[in-house]
Design brief:
By secondary structure, the chain is an alpha/beta fold. It folds into three domains: 205 residues, Rossmann fold; 87 residues, N-(1-d-carboxylethyl)-l-norvaline Dehydrogenase, domain 2, CATH 1.10.1040; 126 residues, Rossmann fold, CATH 3.40.50.720. It is 42% helix and 14% strand. The chain has 16 helices and 14 strands. Strands 3-2-1-4-5-6-7-8 form an eight-stranded mixed beta sheet, with helices on both faces. The protein has a six-stranded parallel beta sheet with strand order 11-10-9-12-13-14. Strand 5, helix 6 and strand 6 form a beta-alpha-beta unit. Helix 1 crosses helix 3. The chain is elongated. The structure holds uridine-5'-diphosphate-glucuronic acid (UGA). Uridine-5'-diphosphate-glucuronic acid binds next to helix 9. The site of uridine-5'-diphosphate-glucuronic acid has 21 residues, from helix 9.
């Protein structure tokens, strides 16, 4: 099939490259000529494991990029909207980019002969596809939905850093279409893809609003598991109980599963905080107070500060003390610092007069834009040298091997926000036990 993908961020570029790998002919559309040029040279605009290999394999054959909507839409059967959906100042979803992309897409569809299908892959609040995107396309193209063009919502469940793997080995595929013809067209794209659990993917077929809700609930539920585990961890800590032992046993219940029960510094990234807040905003707009979801965010905001309390309870006043922060990215294998828990931690350390020495294998340059004046070291051992305490903020593999390195600290005291350090002979304060 001939597919166009609007937006060359992490979802768009991965979707485009993976559809090419599945044998489709793909055109990427982006308003940024630099990104378009990079893709045409086989260079991904963002880092994702395995993405460069896929682009190199397919560029010049069945994938190309352009800034020209008309060219891309006229030459394809189906378009995916994969643009950003940031939060506005109140935490609600800002649909400005989705609307602009829909407008350009609609006007290109108006110039095309024949049927076209529009699919929203961007994470949007329920009702957006049917009440915002479809009407814009209808008005901009002068065509009728369900007759001249089809539409649907097909959420992604890709983890940053593992997005190519997750696309090619999904747990599930969800297609929310406005009618059967749209559903059949979208479903055909995934034919042949093998799912994690079963060999042939059982697609969940539904309407667009339900598909939009499934995405929000997926992320909100995972975020809830983490905040729940953090709250239990905080209670366990006060009683001297090892919360990781507790959650390990709890996770053995097949109804619960062992994943996302790891307490510590809390969740970051561009998705969980934004999506939970957007669902809260939508609920309130409908006159419902979502107390549980608000608690998920509240627990997550307090959690990194509890690491500072723990540190202070061991070192006393932090004024003038050198504190090493290991890990700046919101999780391992990425340079992304959006909503990283190290941001509030560094803020609190600086407010208390501490001197921060930091290390991250990928994310230091990004953090410099927020904290230009803290110390950025080129290795963990340099950050640790002479420190009075250390906070582990990101689950980088290389931190698992640290032990003798902690001995270069003035006081080998480690507050581990990711449950990954295991050393016998250091003063060692896990976050929650
Ligand atoms: C998340 C979801 O996992 C994807 O399924 C979804 O597609 C994506 O958001 C999205 O909406 O685009 P991602 O943000 O890449 O993916 O990150 P995760 O690997 O899920 O981790 C999120 C945060 O939770 C990280 O800061 C991680 O350190 C933290 N976490 C994770 C915990 O604090 N405890 C855990 O037990 C697990």
């Amino acid at each position: 099939m001939k597919v166009s993908v609007i937006g060359s961020g992490y979802v768009g570029t991965v979707t485009a490259a993976c559809f090419a790998e599945l044998g489709h002919n793909v055109v990427c559309i982006d308003i940024d000529p630099e990104k378009v040029d990079m893709i045409n040279r086989g260079k991904p605009p963002i880092y994702e494991e395995g993405l460069e290999e896929l682009l190199n394999k397919h560029v010049g054959k069945n994938i190309r990029a352009t800034t020209d909507y008309d060219d891309a839409v006229t030459n394809t059967d189906i378009s995916f909207i994969c643009v950003g959906t940031p939060s506005d100042d109140n935490g609600n979803i800002d649909l400005g980019i989705v609307k602009a992309a829909s407008q350009s897409l609609g006007s290109a569809i108006g110039k095309k002969d024949g049927y076209h299908v529009v699919v929203v892959k961007s994470t949007v609040v329920p009702e957006t596809t049917e009440k915002v995107v479809v009407p814009i396309i209808e008005q901009a193209s002068g065509r009728k939905p369900g007759v001249d063009f089809g539409a649907g919502m097909n959420p992604e469940f890709l983890r940053e850093g593992k997005a190519v793997h997750d696309f090619m080995h999904p747990d599930k595929i969800v297609i929310g279409a406005i009618d059967q013809r749209s559903d059949d067209t979208i479903s055909a794209l995934y034919a042949g893809l093998k799912c994690q659990i079963k060999h042939t993917c059982q697609i969940t077929h539904t309407d667009p609003g339900t598909a939009e809700m499934i995405k929000y609930v997926n992320n909100s539920f995972l975020a809830t598991k983490i905040s729940f585990s953090n709250e239990i961890g905080n209670i366990c800590k006060k009683m001297g109980i090892d919360t990781y032992k507790v959650m390990e046993a709890v996770g053995k219940d097949s109804r619960i599963s062992p994943n996302f029960l790891n307490s510590g510094a809390g969740f970051g990234g561009s998705c969980f905080p934004k999506d939970v807040k957007a669902l809260i905003g939508k609920a309130k707009e409908l006159g419902y107070e979502p107390g549980l979801l608000e608690s998920v965010i509240n627990v997550n905001e307090v959690q990194p500060l509890m690491m500072i309390d723990l540190l202070e309870s061991c070192t006393g006043d932090l004024g003038g003390k050198r504190i090493a922060v290991l890990g700046l990215a919101f999780k391992n294998d990425t340079d992304d610092i959006r909503e990283s828990r190290s941001i509030p931690v560094i803020r609190a350390l600086l407010d208390k007069g501490a001197k921060v020495s930091s290390y991250d294998p990928m994310a230091a340059d990004n953090m410099k834009a927020i904290y230009p004046d803290i110390e950025y070291c080129d290795s963990a051992i340099h950050a640790l040298k002479g420190a009075n305490g250390c906070l582990v903020m990101t689950e980088w593999d290389e931190f698992k091997g640290l032990c003798s390195e902690f001995k270069v600290m003035r006081r080998p005291l480690v507050v581990d926000g990711r449950n990954m350090i295991q050393c016998e002979d250091i003063e060692y304060v896990g976050l929650c036990w």
